[in-house]
């Protein structure tokens, strides 16, 4: 390996930077929480836990309903990732499916899936894309990318305000 060839550390650094830029361009955490909220909603009704010789049955009469809700939540989480322009629809649908899962799927996966879904849907609703010219960290990309406050109207510095009197 020569000193000029890119090493594993540089490739990993480049991959991390590209993943970070991808993540900043979409509601990543909203999609992840929504996706993770669907997993306990699917799993718990089909789980068959046992305690020594005692077997518990958590299945409900609407086991297929919890499967459908969980799969839809996973799809909505992926939608937030790969189609960020539809984040409002996905957020509202995730919140509504989380509320429905309380009744259909063992209290929304014993409140774990329900809470993850509500937080993920709310984050999807509130996410706003980064404006052009602004860096995702909150700073400006250059001096001319973000104009300052509006300039004062003409004559304001001399006390001339168009004949109006301030009281």
Automatic annotation (TrEMBL):
The keyword Cell inner membrane does not apply. It holds the Pfam family DUF6114. It comes from the Bacteria. InterPro entries: DUF6114. The chain crosses the membrane at residues 28-46, 58-81, 88-104, 110-128. Keywords: Membrane, Transmembrane, Transmembrane helix. Residues 134-167 are annotated as: Disordered. The keyword Transcription regulation does not apply. This is Integral membrane protein. It comes from Streptomyces carminius.
